[in-house]
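dude i think i finally got it to work??
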Amino acid sequence: MAESKTWVDKIATTVQVLSVVVGVVVSVLSFNATRQKEADARRIEALKPFHELQRSVYLETVKTAAIIANPDGRTADEISKAKRRFRELYVAELSMVESPDVESGMIGLAKAVDPELKQLSLAQQAALNLAHALGRSYQ
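look at this
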């Protein structure tokens, strides 16, 4: 009788094997989840400078837009400088970090306050294309 295993011994052996397999699977899943969390944290940390730049450019853009949209009480020089800066932001810094919604908003503001702001020279269009390409490289 010692030679043949009883059904209790067989069940005990099966439970031991299953316990080891489940332990390995749980360990692998836990390891992968930890690696994913670490990768997400690194990605967020790597994007911080971009988000800080984006926030800074957005703040300057909204200040410039406020001057253009509210010209009453401002000198012609202030408005002229704001329009020039608006175009600079549009064809360069802002275009590098803006979302499609922000781009639409800039175009809408230009149409509303001065349609000439949308007219770009070849050099300005090239700068706009470059800024968009640089922005895509962040993604």
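The helical segments are 7-69, 76-91, 93-97, 100-113, 122-137.
im so relieved honestly
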